[in-house]
Amino acid sequence: MLHSFTRAASTLVLLAWLCTASAVAECNLVFPPSPLKMDSRYQYDWYVLRTALNKTTPQYGPCTMRPSTIPMGHARATQELATPAGRINIFVRATSLALEKQFLPIRIPVDKGLLGYRIFLVRADRLERFSGIRDLQDLRPLRVGQGKDWADVAVLRAAGIPVIEGANYEGLFGMLTAGRFDYFSRAVDEALRELDEHRTSHPQLALEPGILLHYPLPRYFFLRRDAEGAQLAQRILAGLEMMIRDGTLDQLFRRYKGKTIERAHLLQRRLIQLSNPELSPETPLSRSELWYDPWRSDAPR
Description:
Blueprint (H helix, E strand, L loop, with lengths): L1 H24 L2 E4 L11 H13 L1 H4 L3 E4 L6 H9 L7 E5 L2 H6 L1 E3 L10 E7 L12 H4 L4 E4 L3 H8 L4 E4 L2 H9 L5 E5 H10 L7 E3 L3 E4 L4 E5 L3 H20 L1 H17 L5 E4 L28
Helix pairs in contact: 2-10, 9-11
């Protein structure tokens, strides 16, 4: 009698374990779509993610990946990912100490650190005031525009640069046009695309041609700190490492970013270097293969 009971109990435990393992092993990724109709900022990131999942299909099995049915900005996406039953289970974002504490980062810079190479959108009628800027001391009197709570805000303020925060991404272009701040600091691959996309709605905007601001700012995939998040992170990390080894990540980077980088003429610009006090000690700065460097002979520039 006792033997039969023990065997039945063991069977139930095994079935429960199999069900749990099956649930954890399922791969269903839901990411936040932008609330803006004209916003191509994340196309490359999601293509990288899809490629990483495809690379790991033989080992981990199939995986679904889709946008949430509800568009969301940064604040809403953070809230949803922080909720165990939230509408998304992954997002991609510039890292900070707070984000890495709250969520599970995959410490491979998705865009090879390109986000930290910044050029400026300015008003065309105020270009002249930037021609004499040679270093950080020259830049400090001018006000930079950034989104509320963006990772760059802490970096810029730590360098003594006055920051004007805007409540939403799209509104920052109008704030620049209205003179609320002097320049909108954007990643190299963002500025030229945004200038093209906003040429009709904000014809006063221009690209500042002479300054390149740089600070290390990796852009990571983030997941929840739970069993599902750990399982998904393990798979995504494995896929990204495969892409680094076989050159796929470099190929995608060149395909999606190369022409825009070349239009920015980085080596003809005056470099202003900042430190990033928000970097974790675990940031893989020593892995040179992970980072874009415009001074490397084989890099798009």
